[in-house]
Amino acid sequence: MKKLLLLVIVLFSLGLQAQTTLTINTTSGGSLRSKFIINSYDTTALINLTITGVLDAQDFRFMRDGLTSLAVLDISGANIVPYAGPNGPMVGAPTGFYPANELPYCAFFDSQFTHHGKPTLTSVILPNTLKNIGNYSLQDCFSLASVTIPTSLDTIKPYAFHFDTALINTNIPAGVDIIMEGAFQITGGVVVDAGNPNYSSLDGVLFNKNKTVLICCPFSKYTYTIPASVDTLGFESFYGCRHLASVNIPATVDYISYGTFSGSGLVSVTVPSSVSRIEDNVFFFCQKLTLANLPNTITYIGFGAFYGCITLPSIDIPSSVDTIQPMCFYADSALISVTLHQGIKYIGLATFQACSHLTSINIPTSLTSLSSDLFFYCKSLPTITIPSTITSIGSAAFAKCYALSSIYAGSPIPVNISSSPTVFMGVDTNTCILYVPIGSVSLYESANQWKAFNIMQEYDFGINTTTAEGFKVFVKNCNLYIWEIHYGENIAIYTIQGVELFNKKVATNRLVFELPSKGIYIVKVGKMTCKVIAT
After folding, report:
1. CA separation for the pair 258, 281 (Å, rounded)
2. What is the pLDDT of residues 213-228, one digit of tens each?
3. pTM of the complete model beyond 0.85
4. Nearest to residue 67, comparing CAs of 80, 50, 85, 90?
């Protein structure tokens, strides 16, 4: 009896091992799994599968999760019928609905557990009756080298081919009407049928029909010159182009969409003056970016625009900018200096958080508030001037700025930070000198958080010289004080007779210069000039 049982097991195992290629006909949706059980097919050995008949979303979940070695799938002769219920590829969705003639949402992408596409899948021939390729259906299938798209197709939905790094060429039939945002991020090019009335391609790059919108650039590009016909760079159009070191953006481009160059290999970029906004995440995680030239036409820099640009050493924010959205330069660990100009009205929370090498930044007097976490963990920042225009400071604005040795608080009345107890968390208030306006020490000594500073010194903040950039200057005991200077600004000091005493660019936002004697002197900061008297 034992020998007979052993023989049955051996024969059963041999039967399973033989099934590396199968052709199956299914007569109803959701029946694929039962076909394998009834016929004792080995789900771990199957490599090539051809299905005819009827499929629904349940079958795609089985192919994705149950057929662990599946590489080549031909479902050209199958029809996809609708399904509503919890057993589709959207794991955990109790009432998921999957339409007919659509490659289901997350068909071969596991959004619940691995967050990856099916790693074994190399080739798919889609149904001849297919109308839509669903959201995330083939996302992150990093071995997928070939997809055959039928002429029946109408719509390709978001992230359908997101980060399919092995996909070499994809042919778009003439009948495709809609390609939604982020549908393609692939290594090879896209080739659009010349008869398609909505889309076109050139050298593997996907455009709208008249090439005014660039939709997707393949990962294989190392350098790229955008055609002069283009006025819009589409949503995430260069996303993940890690080899792309340079791109030439023509002056015809006036709109750069969300996440356009996110995760790309750009080393330097020049934005043309035709552009007025840097949208959210445009340069997000461009980890090789060392130079970003922004024109004086930019008024807005969006959320996370330069987030994680870990090799960017400095940036000059154009004087035209009035808004910087939250987390714009978050974790730019190589950022040493930032130049902010007068006119900026809003800088969002955590904009410079974790800029761990930041040593120089000026706060313009056009600002009235400092957002929460603004300089959180700027651990190398040695000094900061808070101008008198600031009326509110958010929580943890200077938290973990361990190197702070001096803070210049310009307001004679302390900013009320009682409700934000973490503003200076981690700052050594025993050694960091707090400079306050003359006559204001007692007010600061009784103000919440400010009173934690053991060393307070009165500082003559002087008068606000009326200039385009709002720098301040005064003289006391033949010492000339200039502050709220832009990083890298040229400072020149002359006697009234024109004898030059000092002339060079400064690497801080303040300068103290000892004048040779009492008298009248000329101070030039950048292009602005003023007269001071030492008495």
Report:
1. 6
2. 999 999 999 999 999 9
3. no
4. 50
